[in-house]
Structure formats: C-alpha cells, structure tokens
Design brief:
homotetramer, 27% helix, Chorismate synthase, AroC fold, 5-stranded antiparallel beta sheet
Chain lengths: 362, 362, 362, 362
C-alpha cells in the first residue's frame, strides 16, 4: 500500500523535505493510550542532528497532534501527527532537477515520476520524513513498555570500528533508548566519531551496522510463510533510507555453521521453555518463540558527499560533474538508530493488536 | 495477509507436509498468458531432491491446474495449482507433537496454535510447500521472459566454499535457470557437495549463501518508503524457510565503505542513463534504476539433523533428548535456488502489473 | 483483492462452472475449531437445486477439505475446500463464446478478458461458485453459534408475493437455518412457488427480496468511515450473483420518514442499554450497537431464460438473436438464502477476529 | 483498513468535528495531474451549509495542500489536504459524553472506544469529515473529466417529494455538478425545501434518496466476486454518514420483474456494442459493460433533531430524556450529493489506475 504500512494498526506517511508539513497517521491504536509527549520529544531529539558529524540543518521538529488524541489519551480513531518544515533552503537543491546525485533516489524518482517529483532536498525520499516515523514510533514504544516489551538498537560498527556485543540484554537495552549515540561500550563512541570526522574532512561519508534487540515479546506471534515476523520486520526496515541489508540472529554467519551449531537447543525449568542459544534471533518458522528478537542492519554511507562526482544531465542526456552544496551528514548511522527503534515498535504493535485484538494495547 | 502475498497479482498458499494436497492460487494474472507446462515441470524438477545430499523422500510433484486456465492459456481469473502428497510416512513424525526439533518451527507453532497444528513433517511450515511456490513462479518467470526480464540465482557458497562472482550477467543467468545445482564455476559444485556429504556422514547439515540477479527490469518500479522494492522483495524472500538474511547490492559490505566508493556514478551514451558500478543493486530510494537487481540470501543449515539434540517435552515440561528419524536433506541451499527464482518472479510480476496495468503481462 | 475477501480471516475463491474443481481457502480461522461436517453438508444441500423451479443440473457437491484440518479440528493454517465439477455439459454453452446472454456477465467478461475467459456455463462468474462459499460459511456459522450469534435469512418476496415480517427473531432465525425454501409463513411458499412455476412455463424467470437478521452480535464492532459494518457487509453481499440492492434497517423507507420516527430511542433496564425500535438495523455510525443486524437484498430474476432474446455476435459485430439451451433456474431467490447466510457469517467471523484477536473464535 | 480505502490509489481520512484539523491523504495518484483549486473550492462550497435548511455552523473550509503537489501539479507521492476547524462550540456537546443521541453513533462509539472517544460534535463520526472527502473527490473528478468520465448526482426525493428521472444523461450530469441543490426539474427544489422547512419548524428532520449516474466509464472494469464494482462502490458509499441503502440499476425494482423485462438486450451499430435498456446500471457480473453506471442511495433523516427524545445515561445506566442544543441540519440530502460525487470519483480513479496502471490518469 505504498505509503501505508500495517494491518491492525496502520501508519500512513506523507510530506517532502521542503514541503509545508510532513506527517504520519496512526490508525487502529487502542483507545485510552496515554500519549507521553516527553517521550516523543526525547525520541525526536535523538534523531535530530548533533555535533560535527551531522548536518547543519536544524529543524525543531515541533510536532502537533491534530486528531485522535483527546484529553491526553488516544481516542481509537486516526492520530495525525504534523511537523512543519521550517529550515528550508530550497535554493541549494535547484540543480537536482537535472543532475541526479549518485547513490540517491533522484534518478530513480525521475524514472517513476517523469519530472513531476519535488526534487528539492530529495523531496518525499528525504530522511527528513523519518521525523514523523520517530514520533509515531515513540507512541508505539510507550505502549509496548507497558506490556514489558523493550527495544534497543546500538551501533554495531561505523566504518569498521566496532562496539561490544550485547551481553545483559535488559540492562543494555535500557541504556540505549535515551542515547543520541547509542553504543554499549562508551569508549567506542570516540573511535567511531573520529572515523566519521576524518571522512567529513575528506568531503566523504561513512556507513555502519546497527544491531537491534527486543525483549519481552511473547511466543506465537507472526505467521508462517508470507507474513513471517522476519518478512514483516524486514519489509518495514528496508523502508528506512540507507538500509541495504537485514539479518536475523546469526544471519549471514549461518552460512558457515553446521546444523548442530546453528540449532538452538531447548531447555525448560519445568514451567517456561526457552532455548540455550539464540542463533535464530527469537524467530522460528516465521513465528516468535519467546526469546529476544535480534537483528542487524547494514547502513550505507550517506550518499550526499562534498567530493566532486560523475553524473549526467537527465534533460540534455549529457555526462556532467556534480558538486553538492547544502547541509549534509557525513554519518547517519547513529541517527538511524531511533528510526529503527520506531519502526520496530510500530510493527510489533501491529502484530500484537492483530493477535490479541484491538483493545490489547490500551 | 498471512498466506496471501501481492497486490495486483496475489498468491495464496495452502497445505501441509502430510495433508492430502498442497497448492497455490494465483489471482490477477493477465488473461491470455500461455502456460508453459514443460517449464513448470523443469522448475519443479530443479526443486526436487537429487542425489546423496538430499532427502530420500521422493515426491513426483504431479501438479494439476484446476482453474484459471482454458485451452492452454490463462483466463485472467484465479489459477489454482494442486499437488497431491503421495510419499507420506506420518509415523516418522509422531513424537513431534511433544518434543520440538531445535531450529524448527515446532515450538513456535505450539505457542501459536496451542497443540492444534498438524505437526507431521512440520505441517504447514514444511519446505514441501515450496513446490507450489515453484510452480507458480515458473508461470511468472515465463511471463517475465517475454518482457525481456531474466532471473538467475547461483550458490554463492556452501559451508564457506565459494562459487565465482557474477561476471557477464546475461550469460550467467541463462546458464543457471535450468541447473539443479546452480553454480557459475563448475568446479565449485564438487567442492561444495563434498562439504555437504561430509556433514551428512556426521549426521549434520550445512548452510550457505545464494546470490540472485535480475536483468531487464525497467527503472521507476517500486515505491518510496513502505513499499520499496527492497521491502517487497525481502518480505517475500524471508518467507522462504531457512532464509535468515537478505542484502542488496554491496549489502553489509557498505558498512566499511565510504560514500565516494559506495555511490554509483552515472554515465550516459546520450540515450540511456546507467551507473558505472552497481553497489546499490539496481535500487535507489526503494525504486529500480534500470540496472540489474542484485541481492544475496543467507540460508541456515537444515535444522533436521540426525545427531542427538537437547529438547523438551512440551506437554510434561521436562527436558528431553531428541533423535530425529525420517528422511532429511543435509543441505538445502541448492534446492532453495529455484524457490528464490520463483519468489522473485512472483514479486516482479505483481510490481509490473501494478505499475503498467493488469493487461501488461498478457 | 479480487477473489480474496477479509482481513483477520480471509477467503479466497477460485474455479469455473465447467473447470475441474472449484474451491475456497479460509485463512486465519482460529486453531481448534471443530469442523461440523454434517452442518456443511446441510448447508450445501440447502443451496442445491430442488424441485421444479430449479435447474436440472445435479451436482453432488462432494467436497474435500485438503488442508488446515487435522483430527477433525482447524489447525489455524489455511483450510482449502475443494468441490469437483462432475455434471458438466459443456456443449450446451459453446455459442456463448460469441453471443453474450443479456443480463449475464458474458459481455462484460469479454471486455475484461478479451476472449480468454472460460465462457462455458459462465465460467468463473457462475453461481456454481457459491457452493464453496456456502461450505466456508457453514464453518463460520458453526463458530458463531458457539458465541451465541445466529443468522437467518428468509424470502421476503418472490415476484411481489410476500412472506410475513420477522416477529420473534430468535425463533424465526432458528427455523430458517435448515430450510430449503426459507419463509416465515408456511403458506407463502406455495404462492411464491406458483409464481415461479408460471414464469418457468413462459420460459421466463422471477426475482425477489431476501431479508436477513443476525442476533447476538456484541456492540462496538466495525469502524467509522470506510470500514463501517454496512460497508463491509454490502461489499461481501454485492459479490453474490444477482444481488442488485442492499438496505439496512428501514433502508429506502427512511427516505419518507422524519427524524423523530427514524431515530431509535434508547432505553435501559439498569444494566443493558438497547433501543426501543431498530430502524437502524443494529448499526449506528458504521458500528454495531448490540441490537439485531437487519438488512434486505434485491435479487434480480435469473438472467438465463428460455425465451428468445436480442443479442449480438461479439466477433462479427452483428446483431443476433439468442435462444438459450441448457439447464437453468427460473428462480434462484431461495437458493441465494443460504449463500447470504454464508457470506454474512464469513464477514462477522472476520470482524470478530479483528476486534478480539485471532484466538477469540476457537 | 479502517480509515483507508482503495488499492492502487488510496485515501486515508482523519480528524474530529472539534479537533484541531481534519484531513485526508491521497496516495498513488499519477504524477503530473494539474490541481484545479477552483474546482476544489466549488465542490467544498456545494457541501457547505446554505440557507434555512442547513446548520448555522459556518466553516470556511480553507484547506491547505501540504504535500504531494509541486508547482501546481501532483508529484505522485502522497497528497495531504488539511482543513482547520475554526467554528467550534464545544460547550454545546458536553452532555453527549453521558447521554447518547438516538440515531447517532454516540452509543456505538461508547461500546467501541469505552469512553475515550472525542464525543464533541460526534467527534470522528461527524459529517464534518466529509469536507476533506469532497476536496479529494474534486481532484479525482478533475482527473476523470480529462478521460471523458462524468459523474452527476441528483436529489431523487426528499420527504417523498420527487425530482424527475434522468433523461439525457450527458446534459443532466453537467447541470448537476455545480449545483448546491442538485435537482433535474427546477420546480421540485421549492417543493422539497418546503417539506424540509416544515420539518425544521417542528424541530424535526427529513430524509431522501439520491440518484447518481456516471457516463464514460469503459467496459471491463471491476472484478468478479469480492471486488465487483457494486461491492467496491457500495463499500465506499456506505461510509457516507446517513446512507442506509444502495441499489444499482433497477435495484429493488428487480424483485417484481421477470427476466425477460429485466435483461438488457444487446445491440450493435457494427462497431460499438451496447444495451437497449440499462436495468443493470452498467454492471454485469460485477464488471462494467460500458453503459452508464446508475445507482440510488437512501439517506436517512438527520438524527440531530430539536424535539425531546428518550435516551439513557450511559454512566449511571438510567433512562434520561435528551434535548439537543447546538446547530443542526434539518435536511442533509442535498449536502450529501457532492459527497457522493466525491466518493464515486475516488473509487473510479482507483479502479482505473489498477486496471490501466499508475500513469493512466496523468
């Protein structure tokens, strides 16, 4: 459904980087959910650019909830969250109508929209639209926390510089959810930032890997085949700009394992059944097994770099060189982390509402 | 939609490993499509077990098309393909009702279906259901070929033993589509098979990586955000049993690249615009750019192994050991290749019909 | 979604009048539902032609459930019901490829399928496909009855000859659900049958009105706006061949009422809240209010009549006259009643599963 | 999908009568569609209250298009139309939290939303939300007109006072589309208004019937079974508040016809094939046959009346009497006409885009 995602709870995204307002509709959320405005602001703050390795464009993200909330609580009808675009410098982008930026959607958009797309700042494809996603996801995360379900995403690596692995998930996750540079090992932040700054000095950018864990999800959620939890999650995750890979549990590491290593042995304490390892990342046959859901995402380096690049003029069909002006992030890996949290929360709320009914999350 | 996938053209899957019949419904295919029965048989043959590294269960896969085809051509109304299960040995599986196989869906299914699932041979979760998928995909592939769109999947690695990379895509793809062990470098087959046989002798299994390329797709297909081509493809691909990772283009390799390396420079011959590299795997901003679509899938080792494993008794809530009987594949990587081809073809037909209308593929 | 209907529980229909098999997939039904085969047979029997005012084509409707049921209970995975076509006389229909029957889908199908449709006996458009719908609906009705929800449809009129109105809904409904000519006033059957037989003698056919009531539905089901209960029900009901009108509660009668008559006053016994009248047919603002759901359907006269009719030759683009051979029903109003029951049951199960979760109906 | 409707082109509605803003998202409209702001304003003007038989609440409906339109043309990405609520008098409605208005959604909403609904002015159920629908429909109508497809709705009757029938559809339709009281026979307006005013003087309200005709739709649109054109249209039409019946072509009149009268004979001029009558309202077997689409809707009398009514207190579970204050329409039949035009246009654009591809309407 294009810009709508979800079944029992659905999310509809709209807006452009330099349009008047961007926003999202959440439809199907249970009535009576308390809207935690502070938590929405916190998550929007996490997504906003901070410091040297982020764009200088400063958007205040002053969102308004114009429907679906009454006296501080969800009504059960569609919640519309609007965020005005205030810091627009459209002049920066005028050449994009003709010369597409390598690695960006500009040329693909031309193929699809035949020149009618709003090319300013990437238009509808802009990472700017992750702001309403983060706002919606913050509501979804609040709801999940009340059910004992917690989501945490850390920067597994930037430019090859690694964070430590998850160890005690519960503690690790809680530490991550408020961080603007979510790493598990504090020392790694400095090293990662240095790499990103080095690239920035070269007019270049860096990529990385995010790793996400979810604890508290009950078993028995998801569907066999086309609506496996991996299917639904990856569908949503690949909608985040710059995500080019998703792997669950041991992921690509499975390719060199034998079955006897890969299989997660079951164990019971006489009451709860769990697995001794979690190579399958909490999902078997597409369905949750009650263990933590674990996955990683490949984040490509920001395509907007200041180095001169080879491109073409789409109108004249001539080769052209491109030097991007404007304000850009040499690294967006850390800023993508709260977007991942948001998207995962949105998906899980939908799955739970489908499984247990529309009042379950109220 | 659970066991239904697709919008303009949808696919509905049903059946269990030891049920009476398994099958698939294809709805929305253009009228007038010639049904190439030989091609369906060829693809089903590719999926069937062959040789030492596959299960001894031999199913003839004698499918019947009971609706939607008239005088050899699609009518435009739902096509139902049925495949009877003939080689069932249900006795083999009776213990699964109580003791779940590690790495399999048995326990997750118990969480979801509360003991009512058909546990025999994995029931609805069985890889057996990929047979109707392959049959439907064969029809989809025939349709795409008429439009100049070709799909090819090779075994990138099994147990760490690698095939060569794609070089000339056109030739490579054509060679793959009829192979029962699709590798680009003939010599690698022997090495991979040896690894799988070694594991089999140990009562164990091996995993691997598949790589798929699609040529001929026009630019401008897909949607920004929630229905990006990566989203839709990964959604469908993660429904294939044992797939635990999907990456497009450079995928996880992006994490150590800089933007200047990762970005695919544009070039034109004065008519067509293309990119000099294809790190983005033919997709930018979720939309095809006219370059080949390239992605890789992590295939976990078959969870059914003959080694004794630790499990639990789900009814008595006691620890238990499990020794699987029955007929199993020590390696399913090669058998998954035609399933990937099928799933990709199904998705692309749906996307094209949505973009260009329901008669486009006729 | 073309031949698929429903969200939490979906139904996918396939087959043609003279194809090999027709059938339906039910996906999303809770696990553990007992499949009452006798009830399915009873409902199929009600739909089958009986007596002088029905077609002479006698189909035994020997259905097979080939998936999704294990040891007599639903597994929670897709249930596929197949019904073979046995009494086919394709020769009867060969002229339909060229000369469309007035009032039938033949010409519209030609516009859509460009000559590739299976024209025999109306192909996919045939009323024959209501057999699998009735089978699926019988399962849905069994499920609803366990929740205290009962559906009953009576023949409000045939050729203007009227049945009495509903009086005591509970008793009336129970009497209807097993009848092959469901009227509330026994005497009216004879009068209606006479009208139909008279038309049959003239080589003609008759139409009528069906009225359906549902008791036991809780309040608070449905959605405002696009998924109102009226929207969802009418969507499903208009898929039944020959239905050309649907009205809820007072329906078209509202057009001559004043608000003070039309509004259903509320009343309470201190516990339950109900309305004193039920002009709104149990639905306000698209949402159930706990009162019986009441609606009526206009059923057009069977378009297959033996009288000579004016038509055209679609290939030669010449005017042509048509004299239909074959076996036809001069009246299908009574046979449509169990189809209405089935469709309503399917919709309500879907709505309840969406509202209360996928296990609710188990 | 609750507040989202459509497949190829979808519409998502949000807002409450007394919330900050109401609006709609149009997703999937072809790029390059010129947005005719004057036409949007014209249609919004038609929907607004005028004169004695309408509410005194005067909303200017100053809409803003905040996304999806660039340089006056659609971009192909989601169009968000926002309309602020300015003339709110929330005090008028405070009692509705406890005492539901007969004939309104208040009680059904309480069943569904457990007291969390925004009860002011009917909240999300308010007819006020038809304003964004009309705005979206105006865009859809502009698009259709370029394809030669015209929609016109007249007041067939109010309080039993009738307009003349359609005669020359083309002329009739064009006359209707700009009228604020769309009747075919000018004289009937006066008579209908008198009836409505009489009711208003009694503190009461009146209902009526709308009849809609569409010319220019090609044959071959729609699907057999669950997505018949009747199914899709009625689904959308029953989402309009106060609609309680929908009938196509001869509709309920079919119930007293014989097949020989009801069947529409075919005729050809050697090129085009058409029917001599149009009892089927342009749809056979759920699919358009190229003839005008004709249907009628029953509109119930406005439930908001000033007469004292019997109700209950939902909190205390006591019987209560209700005297509604505030500003209300004694007749909304005429104001519903542009809403019907809008909804029909939205549906037809979706169907055409699905059939002929997403660029078809550009």
């Amino acid at each position: 459904m294009k810009n709508t995602f979800g079944n029992s709870i659905s999310y509809t995204l709209f807006g452009e980087s330099h349009g008047e307002e961007i926003g999202i509709i959440i439809d199907g959320l249970a009535p009576g959910v308390e809207i935690d405005e502070e938590y929405i602001k916190l998550q929007l703050m996490r997504r906003r650019p901070h410091g040297k390795i982020s764009t200088a464009r400063q958007e205040k993200d002053e969102y308004r909830i114009v429907s679906g909330v009454f006296e501080g609580k969800s009504t059960g009808t569609p919640i519309c969250i609007l965020i005005p675009n205030t810091s627009k410098k459209s002049g920066d982008y005028s050449s994009l109508a003709e010369i597409p930026r390598p690695g960006h959607a500009d040329f693909a958009a031309e193929c699809k929209y035949h020149g009618f797309q709003d090319y300013r700042g990437g238009g509808h494809f802009s990472g700017r639209l992750t702001a309403p996603i983060v706002a919606a996801g913050a509501i979804a995360q609040s709801v999940l926390k009340k059910k004992g379900i917690y989501i945490g995403t850390h920067i597994k690596s930037i430019a090859g510089k690694k964070d430590r692995d998850f160890s005690c998930l519960e503690d690790d996750i809680k530490a991550l959810s408020e961080s603007i540079f979510p790493v598990l090992c504090e020392a790694s932040e400095e090293i990662m930032r240095e790499e990103a700054e080095k690239a920035a000095l070269d007019g270049d950018s860096v990529g990385g890997i995010l790793e996400c864990a979810v604890i508290g999800m009950p078993g028995g959620i998801g569907e066999p085949w086309f609506d496996s939890v991996e299917s639904i999650l990856s569908h949503a995750l690949f909608s985040i700009p710059a995500v080019k890979g998703v792997e669950f549990g041991a992921g690509f590491g499975f390719s060199e394992m034998r079955g006897s290593e890969a299989n997660d042995a079951f164990e019971t304490d006489g009451e709860k059944i769990y697995t001794k390892t979690n190579n399958n990342g909490g999902i078997n046959g597409g369905i949750t097994n009650g263990m933590p859901i674990i996955f990683r995402l490949a984040i490509k380096p920001t395509p907007s770099i200041f180095k001169e690049q080879e491109s073409v003029n789409m109108k004249t069909k001539e080769n052209a060189s491109l030097k991007i002006e404007g304000r850009h992030d040499p690294c967006i890996v850390h800023r993508a982390a709260p977007v991942v949290d948001a998207v995962v929360a949105m998906v899980l709320c939908d799955l739970l509402a489908g499984r247990f009914g529309t009042d379950f999350l109220s």
